[in-house]
Task: structure prediction
Amino acid sequence: VQLQASGGGLVQAGDSLRLSCAASVRTSSTFAVGWWRQAPGKVREFVAAIDWRDTTYYADSVKGRFTISINNAKNTVYLQMNSLKPGDTAVYYCAAQNRATMSYDYWGQGTLVTVSS
Result:
């Protein structure tokens, strides 16, 4: 499984950005696809995920501002980010959860999001 994240960039606080994660396999073949982020000097943290039943999960820090969605026809997962804050600055990674191991075994290369104040 290969994942390609894109859509990052430099925006101002309050702006919106949409990240895309294109998968090399049917997204429905994985248990879930999620977004994680890693800010400079910090550990990688969970942001959001969507599972095969289209159930969504969010970190408390992004609830109400970020929306994860999936287009199974395009094998692409999106992360719509609204009301961005400087604290959202990070490299964002998409990852797929392996049905066999139930672990996020597959990772994309990451896309940088920088939010200026």
Observations:
- Residues 97 and 103 are 5 Å apart (CA to CA).
- The two ends are 37 Å apart (CA to CA).
